[in-house]
Every structure is written in structure tokens, then in C-alpha cells.
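Collaborator request, handled under Task 6.
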Amino acid sequence: MRLRLPHAPYVANKIALDLAQSKYVTLTSGVEPIAKIAQNLIEKNIHEEMAIEEKVKNILEENLEEIEFMRLDERQLFWMAKKKVAEEEDFILNWDDRYNSLSHAMLDHLIQDDLIDFDVSENIIRNIIFKGIDGYMKSFEEIEDVVIEKIGHYKRKLIQGTEEYELVFQKLYEEELKRKGFL
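C-alpha cells returned to the collaborator:
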């Protein structure tokens, strides 16, 4: 599952709540500063990936005639080029490795800003952060399906992509996140 910008605040909140509920961590300034740091790092990571994708799109557009002439699969070519550009820019595409890298960065910032205290191994804290990211991403599709089903049962049919649909979707999505303990 791909991490997208709309997910960032929810994932960040999940991480902050998981740390707050952990028996290993004491928060020195509450949940909000932790969520803010996590959200900033997640958004930065997503923007880095978006920049790589934009670079790849430009490369493919520059070579479009050759791609069409050789009848290459553009989707496969995009992925291959993205892997190459990501490698050149030292960007991690593998999700587990990426979540692990984000966990390290988040813990480093939390320690640096003195937002948490703990008496256990840093690996235990990083695992809590990692599981927060991974847990949210694994639940995302399930939650989205539940929300879409609920919208489908509305008496008045909402058209996907309209402002009204998006507002209802967002409201139901947040309710479902609260019900699952993500907010």
C-alpha cells in the first residue's frame, strides 16, 4: 500500500497514540508535538517520492517517441526508471525498509527535541513507531471499504468525486478511524 499525503496526519496520530499508550514511553510534552514531528517527516518522505516520480515522468516524456516506436510498456518502464532514480537519490522504495527508516528518523527527532523519556532499548521504541505506520497502512483499505459501503447505503446516492461525496467520505472515514483507535 502506497503512503499518500492524506494519510500523513492519521499515521502520525496513530504513532503518537501508540507511544502514549506504551508502557515503555513517557511523553514530556503530550501527544500533539509527537504527532506533528511524525507528520512532518512522513510528508517530507512523500514529497521526496513525488519529486522522483515527477523526474521520471519528465524523462519518459522526453523519450516518448522512442518508447512508442519500440512499443515498450510504459508502466513497466516507469517503475524501472523510478527504481533507478530512487537509487541515484538514495531514496528507499521498499515499504518495510522505508517504514524502518522513518521510524529511525522519528525517534531521533523525538529524542533530540526531548519529547519522550524511556528506559528500554531504542529498538523497542522504533518498533512501536514502525508498527504504528504498518498497522495504519494495513487497516487503510479495510477502513476505506467500510466507508464506501456505508456511503452506498445512503438513501440519496452520492457521486464519487463530488465535493459532497468527499465531505461525507472524510467524516465517515474519521469516525471509522476513531472506532478503530487511530484517532
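The cover message to the collaborator said: "Helices lie at 8-21, 31-62, 64-69, 74-88, 95-112, 122-152, 163-180. The mean pLDDT is 90. Please let us know whether this matches your experimental observations."
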